[in-house]
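ok trying again, last paste got cut off:
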Amino acid sequence: MFMSSTLSRTQIHAVDIDRGPERFKVYTQRDLGAIDELRQLPESLRFEMQVVSSVLPFRVNDYVIRELIDWGRVPDDPIFQLTFPQRGMLSEAHFNRMAMALRSGMDKQGLRAVADEIRAQLNPHPAGQLELNVPRDENGDPITGLQHKYRETVLFFPSQGQTCHSYCSFCFRWAQFVGDKSLRMATTEAEKLHDYLKSHHEVTDLLITGGDPMVMKSKQLKAYLEPLLHPDFSHIRTIRIGTKALSFWPQRFVTDADADELIELLHHMVIAGKHVAIMAHYNHAKELDTSIAKAAIARVRATGAEIRSQGPLLAHINDNPEAWSALWQEQVKLGIIPYYMFVERDTGSRHHFEVPLHKAWEIYRQAMQSVSGLGRTARGPSMSAMPGKVEVQGVTEIHGEKVFVLRFIQARNPEWVQRPFFAQFDEQATWLDQLKPAFGEKRFFFE
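nice, full thing came through this time. structure:
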């Protein structure tokens, strides 16, 4: 049975939130000139935003603008860097090409062609997402909207969830949002998902992802989730929902018209025996600052669902140990489980946000030194690379050779998990494919 709405409303008042529904107002590239706060910035900076957002997706809402950005610190404010286009997100060559196209008065079709050419060079689907991760049906045909990279876990991309309340400037799934159907991973067919899960009893975890599934109406999410309570799906023990809504639109869980229905759905799945985990994307402690954000966290936790946090280490946003220790300390205080520190993926605007692996490990190590044991559940720095999730465990010297110590947290081949291996130390390396085996080996064991 669903819990009563009385309990859910009690959770609202328990965290001192007493407000009616807020209107969700969003701005995209064509609305840049309508954002009042941008008018204080130099015209040259506003033009740079126009150039970058002609190539990479841009979307921000009033809540982020009003509550999360300190406009006195712009352009250095971390949430501004997280959500607004920055010139460094494009290479100089790509920036200049698009800037020239805009200044020339090129029509929309021409601008789109220039943008598409640039996007094709930005590795839109890293780590074999389309080539290696998409499962096939009994006829050998690819099942769109699903990924099955690891034995126990299937990712599902519902088409109704292929946008977000705001876009992150670093997003490794930016290709989902540029209007090119050939680059999108999505499906509306719940039947295909359910049929696949029925026939794959090795799968224990379903991750609903996007975009952001929390842009969906509760009744749409319910249509995907409730059938999983049937005995045919008893092997599906955990349902994960990847979302940034707790940061970018916490109203989704508190004051939206169907917020109570969403809370009831989560609770219903829990009491029916499923482990429900909200995989919350956080990049900075500022995202936890507002009363509505705290209210959303409290309401989700009251359902019996857990919240786990993950996010990448990013230059200009959180590339120092103080930012991470503050984030993890506040999350533990609010009952969120720190889960992953990721390395920025090799796609899109990576060169603007990437941090060398040795520096990433040092930031992680120092941040861990200033949190309690409950904050040390965060794993990292972790690369979601072609063969699996590879964790940088440290830098050391063995037999006179300086090396990276690495291991697989998760892998395409389960036999690789937890197996340590070593790479030559490289001060500039930011990703697995830039590393070379240590000790004279010609290749890594997984190649």
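cool. The radius of gyration is 22 Å. Residues 1-16 have pLDDT under 50 and may be disordered.
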